[in-house]
Hints:
single chain; 285 residues; alpha+beta; CATH 2.40.50.320; Glutaredoxin; 14 strands; elongated
Amino acid sequence: MRILASRAFLLSCLCFVLCSCGSSDRHYDFQGRVVSKVPATHTLVVDHENIPGFMGAMTMPYPVAASVDLSGVEAGDRITARVVVHKEGDYELTKVAVTDSSHRKEVAETRQLFPGEEIPDVELVNQDGKRIRLSDFRGKTVLLTFIYTRCPMPTFCPRLSSLFAAVEKELAKDPEEFRRTQLVSVSIDPKFDTPPVLRKYGLAYLGGEEQGFGHWSFTVPTPENLKKLAQAFALIYEEEDNQIAHSMSTVLIDPGGRLVKEWNVSDWTSSEAVAAMRQVENAKN
């Protein structure tokens, strides 16, 4: 089975298919493997072979018809299903049936996540040398990004940290909003970014105010846990000539520990991020 290359590619494929569907519903039967189930959105992420007339072989999320009971479907299951493309342009799965449930234990614990899925609850060490877990922030809306302190590219880590500093200042204007949110910077350089290094780096963006660490944590995972996070959030990193070549990933996590949104570039604004965090808070209330 082929893995989805990018969400942009997926959307372009869907646009082509849906625009050519005509005026009546179309049905496409297929077989595949469930990569994950997202109960919050009644969605299955399915790894499937080519579906003639609809979609090439790839992994992609499918909304499931409300009438379909997913209680007996789990990640790793082999299924048969029918994708119905409605004349209005939307699509959904019907007739979902498990044909083989013996592979559930083989499902990998980490992989690229889709919105609505829970993030990996990995252990991190913060700027004070304290061991924490991402689940420690349950109940809060979390904005998380990846940096490393030696990054020399102004449009990469320094820009991300500057954006976080602006988000920090905006959220601090409302004490209640400040209490319900959390910022987390995760280093991709475990060999160099020790807690003292992260503390010094963090203070530079917090204006020297140590109390800021209560709301903005600067953390480093073990190399193994970094790999889990990188896979979950489609982060690419590779050490080259004492520097680290890397992509960018900033993610928004809801109070239940589920992925809401991600930015894979640094051209987002602090106001955009704050607005997204507030939207999560409003949805909760």
